[in-house]
Amino acid sequence: MRISVLCSDSGHPIYPRLLQWCAARRPAHTVELAQGRAQLSGGEMLFLISCNEVIDADTRARYRASLVIHASDLPQGRGWSPLVWQILAGCADIPVTLLEAGDKVDSGAIWHQIRLHFAGHELVDEINAALFDAELALMDFAIAHLDTIQPRTQAGEPSYYRKRTPEDSRLDVQRSIAEQFNLLRVADADRYPAFFDYLGHRYEITLRKVEPHES
Q1: Which CATH architecture has domain 2-161?
Q2: CATH code, 166-214
Q3: 130 Cβ contact partners less than 8 Å away, ≥ 6 residues apart
Q4: Tens place of pLDDT for every residue, the chain, 215 residues?
Q5: Of 110, 153, 162, 187, which alpha carbon lies 20 to 30 A from 75's?
Q6: 116 φψ region: left (φ > 0), alpha (ψ -120 to 50), beta (else)
Q7: Structural domain boundaries of the chain?
Q8: Of the candidates 192, 196, 202, which has an alpha carbon nearest to the alpha carbon of residue 172?
């Protein structure tokens, strides 16, 4: 089987996992990891993973299946950063959905879902690791079920998440750590750090989980 994986940013945290996944699927399959549409060769399966590029119908038509992965119970939660928005809302049980890519954002037929369960203490690295495990498992599911899958159309009225901005990582100095812990734990210290302004200065926060004996 010829498989293409398109991830726009080699600096994205999932990229090393994708490199490992692609290497492990060879030589059983012909697998390429691309960073742009122009690099796609066509084939049986196209996975769009953290892809920032619009993939048109002509490009998708070069594959038997073009699939994306989205961490919400579609059609609820279409749009940007669904996992982060749901954790900020206090959700602990979050589905990760494998669906067909289409012209409209996150609107394609659903192939499969895996549910993530969070206890509430996980930091961004742990959250990402759980998400990436689910994404790679869904990719394996797609390969195994390409010939037999019966996708289901999304049903219900959709909702949408807006794109997050650096301002969304702002902490309120008048509120407690407990009140803002979800914001602290989803903040990416390298790309989108949590911060606050105080006494005329801006401060960024790096959060690390330690065992009791380390503190």
Answers
A1: 3-Layer(aba) Sandwich (3.40)
A2: 3.10.25
A3: 116, 118, 122
A4: 999 999 999 989 999 999 999 999 998 999 999 999 999 999 999 999 999 888 999 999 999 999 999 999 999 999 999 999 999 999 999 999 999 999 999 999 999 999 999 999 999 999 999 999 999 999 999 999 999 999 999 999 999 999 999 999 999 999 999 999 999 999 988 888 999 999 999 999 999 999 876 65
A5: 187
A6: beta
A7: 2-161, 166-214
A8: 196
